[in-house]
Design brief:
This protein is mostly beta strands and 394 residues long. The protein has three helices and 25 strands. A hairpin with a 5-residue loop joins strand 13 and strand 14.
């Protein structure tokens, strides 16, 4: 018998939780789910004294912004078990009837404050409505019975001020008491930092104070097909970066999303990036550093979990961590940096004299360039104001 799936997605904006719960035949206060993890959401049907035949289903979301469907309009479908049983759930049987399975949904948003995964304190919900009968006379709906289950979820994340051993958290970087912090800090994976523990280390170039950049990470795949599952970003000295109030500015790149998170052997791809969320260099050190692992201003550590099987299980996942270190340049850092059009520096007295160089590291008009072996009456001024919209990528 051919089944026609009725699937509608309604975005509900309801302020009265009691009214909402009254619309549900069953309400489940489910567990916490983890930010940036992917899950197979599903619904089980319990048949009691009679055989039951499933006909149609409908899925509603509460606060759907917490779920990333990866562009799949209707991620839920009947299970293979149900279809192979001709849409029948035998009497006294529990059967999984709906699931996303290969269309795993990623937890893509965070609340402002942590909730308690109950019908009165939750972040998002999924409502499963199924119609069924006992006569197996689909598409005749005259004797159909409707059943609605409402499931509520909360989201947890590192930096929510709660140490969760179930997610291998040891500390929390938002904890003002710094409980279980390492000698350096507690990173954004909620692990104490004792050393770098990086699989690869890159000493990157200098970046410019007050410029904004699209930071990214490339993944180089070697001998086997790999499927990327999740990522985590840690910052070393994060005060150097202005995330423009975006708590989690990194995302999977459009390239890896378009490839269904798959990398073929010997393929190289940008898999993580901040674009379109640019990060601005918002701090300068007391003295210039040399952009090496031993002399740097800040760092970004990219950890990616992947497998070669494309399954939801995590037992066969691999983890790869890349650490990239940066230094900051700025006008008045005692270095005349021609790559940023500097022609002088007020603190570099070998090249210019006090009051002959402006705050953009340009010679003041009318000042002789006697120290450069020539003279001129004008130098072009050039700087990047705080509200600049001229973004520089690398």
């Amino acid at each position: 018998m051919k089944k026609y799936i009725l699937f509608l997605i309604w975005i509900l904006f309801l302020s009265n939780i009691n009214i909402l719960s009254a619309r549900c035949d069953q309400v489940f206060d489910w567990w916490m789910v983890r930010y940036n993890y992917t899950y197979n959401f599903y619904d089980d049907f319990i048949s009691k004294s009679n055989d039951v035949y499933l006909n149609t289903f409908n899925i509603d979301y509460i606060n759907p912004n917490f779920l990333n469907t990866r562009g799949i309009k209707n991620p839920f479908h009947w299970t293979e078990e149900l279809k192979n049983n001709n849409y029948k759930v035998p009497a006294n049987t529990t059967m999984r009837i709906l699931e996303v399975w290969t269309n795993r949904l990623q937890i893509s948003s965070l609340p402002q404050t942590r909730t308690n995964w109950t019908r009165n304190s939750y972040d998002f919900g999924i409502e499963y409505t199924t119609s069924y009968d006992y006569s197996n006379n689909f598409p005749n709906a005259s004797d159909d019975i409707s059943h609605k289950e409402c499931v509520y979820y909360s989201v947890s994340w590192c930096w929510d001020w709660v140490i969760e051993p179930s997610y291998w958290e040891i500390c929390d970087p938002g904890d003002p008491n710094k409980i279980w912090w390492g000698p350096n800090w507690c990173n954004t994976s909620c692990k104490p930092v004792n050393n770098n523990q990086c699989d690869q280390i890159f000493d990157w170039w200098k970046l410019r104070y007050n410029y904004a950049y699209n930071f990214y990470d490339e993944f180089i795949n070697w001998s086997n097909t790999s499927y990327l599952n999740k990522f985590n970003i840690d910052y070393v000295n994060p005060q150097f970066l202005d995330n423009q109030w975006i708590l989690k500015p990194f995302n999977w790149s459009q390239s890896i999303i378009s490839s269904s998170y798959k990398l073929n052997p010997n393929q190289r791809m940008i898999v993580l990036e901040t674009s379109p969320n640019k990060l601005r260099i918002a701090w300068v050190p007391s003295t210039p550093t040399n952009w090496t692992r031993n002399s740097y201003d800040f760092g970004i550590q990219y950890t990616i979990n992947y497998d070669n099987s494309n399954t939801i299980d995590t037992w066969d996942d691999f983890s790869h961590k890349e650490c990239i270190y940066y230094s900051t340049s700025w006008c008045w850092d005692k270095i005349i940096d021609s790559s940023y059009w500097e022609t002088c520096d007020n603190w570099n007295l070998n090249w210019t004299a006090w009051n002959s160089c402006n705050s953009s590291c340009q010679l003041i008009p009318g000042t002789p360039w006697s120290w450069l072996g020539t003279t001129t009456s004008r130098a072009w001024e050039w700087n990047v104001p705080t509200n600049s919209t001229s973004w520089w990528n690398f």
